[in-house]
Amino acid sequence: MPNRERLVITVGLTLTGLGLTFFIADPATVWLLALVLVGTVCVGTDGIVRSHPKIHLHSLGYTLTFSILPALLTLAAALFLRLIVYAGIHWLIGGLALTGFLLAAVIVGEYTTVDWRSRYYSLARLTLSVACYIAAFTLYIVIYNQKVRSIQSATAVWLISSLLALELFRETEAEAARTWLYAAVVGLVVGEMTWGLNQWPISGPAGGAFLLLAFYVATGMVQNVFAGRLTHRMLFEFGAVAAIGFAFLFFMSHFWVR
Q1: Count of alpha carbons within 13 Å of 185, Cβ hemisphere only?
Q2: In sequence order, which residues have a C-beta less than 8 Å from that of residue 136 and are 6 or more positions away?
Q3: CB-CB contact of 183 with 216 (8 Å)
């Protein structure tokens, strides 16, 4: 089957399933359907990626990471769209359209980055990076909005942050072990921050914004470590961005209290 057909089928089935979740009242059933959709996206993405003529140059463990971002993007859409469904049908339609566009772009980006010498590699990496931060922010909002126990929310944030960091750090297969280690550390940092935020009565978007800034700063520093560009000046710049960002979010949090 041509990749174009695989892509249309994968995205089409996902959007159909996401649309069906709005007619289901039982949360457990919604979760089950969301997991089925995640599995569908993983299978579809894997089939497309493995059709690349240079996929044989990579190990099985490495190629499995190509399905992480499409899977988490699908999960984010399934959970977040239910939060905005009451805002109106136009929000729902817009959300589904945006999800379809992002999911298609991400799957194509995953395929393109199989070969780092591709002329579109840089554009594909940029697309995947932006999608990573969108998925992270969306999932952070959903998790923080639940106001569950810290052991649950922090663990979920740690797992999601680690997996998304893997996508951001995936550059060369030779550094796979180091990549997994740094991704886990980034996830731990953001997860630990969740414990503190849970004691603060702010809204889901505010909590998501704080976690996203922490994720952005942490992943940015690690990416520069991998590239060998982390200098004292760059550390100061990251520190300044973090300080200004957190100060701004702290000021705005007075208007975001639940």
Answers
A1: 13
A2: 160, 161, 164, 211, 212, 215
A3: no
Angstrom distance (rounded) from CA 57 to CA 21: 39
- 151 forms bridges with which residues in the sheet? none
DSSP state of 235: H
Instruction: Give the closest residue to 172 by CA, choosing from 230, 117, 249.
Output: 117
Give yes or no for residue 257 having a pLDDT over 60: no
Predicted confidence at residue 105, as pLDDT, reads 96
Per residue in 214-248, pLDDT (tens digit) is 899 899 888 888 777 777 777 777 777 777 777 76
Q: Which ranges in the chain belong to alpha helices (H)? A: 3-20, 27-49, 60-63, 68-84, 89-112, 121-146, 150-169, 176-197, 204-227, 232-252
Write down the mean pLDDT value for the chain: 84
Confidence at residue 197, expressed as pLDDT on a 0 to 100 scale: 77
- The full length of the chain comes to 258
Is the CB of residue 6 less than 8 Å from the CB of residue 47? yes
CB of 7 closer than 8 Å to CB of 70: no
Long-range contacts of 67-70 (CB under 8 A, 24+ apart): 67/41, 67/42, 67/110, 68/163, 68/164, 68/166, 68/167, 69/106, 69/110, 69/128, 69/131, 69/132, 69/135, 69/164, 69/167, 70/41, 70/42, 70/44, 70/45, 70/103, 70/106, 70/107, 70/110
